[in-house]
Amino acid sequence: MTLALLSRPSTTSRKHRRRGNFSRIPDLDGIRAIALTLVVLYHLFGHGRVSGGVDVFLFVSGLVLALSLHAAAVRGKTSAVLSRWGRTFGRLAPPAATVLIAVIVLAFTVFAPWEREQTLIEVISAALYLENWQLIWSQLAYGAAGPEASPVQHFWSLSVQGQVIIVVPVIVAVIFALRRTIRKPGQVAWGLLALATLASFIYATAAQPADPARIYFDTFARFWEFGVGALLAGVLRAGAALPPFAALPLGWLGLAAVLFSGFIVDGASAYPGPAALVPVGGAALVVLSVRTPTPFTVSNMLRARAFVAFSKISYSLYLWHWPVLIAYLTIDSASSDGVNALGAIVVLGISLVLAVLTWFLVERPVNAVIRADSRSRRSGLISLLSVGLVAAMGCALLVNAVGRGADQSIATATSGDGAVVVEECRGAAVLDPLRGECDASDFVGEEPLPEPALLARDDANRPGCWATASESTLDICELGPTDAAVWVLAVGDSHNNTLVGAYEMIASSRGWRIDVAGREGCDWSHAYRDQATDQRVQQCLDWVNLVDEHVATTAYDAIVVMHSSRAAYRAAPDSEKLPGDDPVVEELRRDGLVQAWATRPDLSVPIIAIRDNPIFPSGQLDCVLDDRSIANGECDFPREDVLLDDGNAAAVAEDPNAHLIDLTEYICEESTCSMVVGGVIVTRDGFHLSATYARSLAPYLDRALAAIVEPISST
Q1: Do the beta carbons of residue 183 and residue 175 sit within 8 Å?
Q2: What is the DSSP string of 277-300?
Q3: Confidence band (pLDDT; 50, 70, 90) for 373?
Q4: Residue 682 burial (CB < 10 Å; 0-12/13-18/19+)?
Q5: Which of 325, 391, 614, 618 has the fewest Cβ atoms nearer than 10 Å?
Q6: 8 A C-beta contact, residue 491 and residue 523
Q7: What's the whole-model pTM score?
């Protein structure tokens, strides 16, 4: 079946040459190499700034895709679409698979055990070209590298590229397959491309300010960068070029825009919105200028022998630099705040060596196979085998990791009066002066619970109790019998929801109903809690208003509140974040809580504020992996350093029917707080209680809640 993609080729060779019949611009390899290298350099030396290199890379990918489809149209073969897939993924997949297998090895040798499961999930996502959606689902932010960052996070741009390369040719092929129905399929294809590009740009412009972290990875928001490149291919094919007098200055101006857009624009918070027109527009000027042969143009540099040689390893350099960087930061515990200049040079050197080896041992042999196979059957097979190998290996290891997640919960029981009782001498029980039989020394030398590889998912939170930062809905889960005599609301941020397991134990033992309502980065307070954007601040306030309305219309017997002591605040919704040591913060935080609590219509309903758990230093969790480190006190930190003020005590003092529950004595010693207590790891990430330790706190939280709630309910 004939495939006349994009437009019908002319039968007149002279006319065809005049219109710019070309399938490849050699300079594009150089532009793409610059884009990928910029990403590498900014990751290593940019201190969290975004280079704009990814935007240029996607633009060039769109341009190359359109040129390739046009070349397929000239050949008039439908199979050219499949050949395009085979050649493209045959080149891209083997070096990517090599790096992903290396990441799997790092996951079991260098990275922390609790990062293993998520790393395997993302390796599989990267192999299947779905990493950008995985990152969106995981709510990761794309910022400066740290040891907690995903080692395959940079595969998101390759995933976006892969999705477009798969979908667009199919759409074009379908349009031309319907050419008996569609009179001018070429014009329809170009029209749809223009509309999709415009729609994507409008979507990115409108959605980016509200949720920049998500939109940054969104294929639909990124498509316009592909579209601009593809549309430019059509313009070039029509014979457009800059006049000689303009090609020289505009070409170098475009290159300057590409090179320095990272300094001009804060891309982390602005891309892929309109600000991305700076690097994309610069790349477009470079492409237009190289079509005009004049001395001293950018093209001379891009086609230089040394630059062409470097461009061959740029893709592998991009693939290797990020996992090497994350591995370096993981090994160098002193670099928790980022890589220094010397470390960046070391990472760059190692990445260059690995990139060169990958070129000679993987890329060049594979490219030779692809060039030798005109129908790209073997190249398609290479791609499928590469993707299949990584996906199968990742899935097998992931299933094994998940399968090892045996029930490690602490045994509990109910006393005669309905109180929660922990039968084992684990966790908080060793700090209970009434449990003399429990001794922390009994657990010396034992691997603590939960198993470190399972620590990241030792979280009692659940979707029904939880709203993400991009949502304003009030999601409430019900624990215990619906017709209970005692009805309690527990509301707050993620620190409140670490206690879901404990709340469930209390509800079951006491026969209470406990509703849990949590939201990411937001709690029941009328203060302006700092968020990533002004719109997020408003969304948090909207959620708080929903809590106000719910409390005003629901006959709760008590309301339990808890929030993070690390929360930052603003003086106004559109103002900057206040420094943590600003004395205004204490007043704003206290007043915000008091004002929220005052909205309950019946002030006889008690507010029960739970003091926040200790906040341990970032990057210090590795100490729980070594028995000697635990025994030597390397997991212990001064109490005054990790117990931060959350404002609850000050707010409780202002409300005549508010109470404070402080469980610190069951988490910390008199002068220190440890990450491991009674054979249980206290925190799953340094900031939140592990679900296992939270369950060990259930008897003490139960006792404190019952002392406040039951006298009220009995009346």
Answers
A1: no
A2: HHHHHHHHHHHHHHTS--TT-HHH
A3: low
A4: buried
A5: 618
A6: yes
A7: 0.83
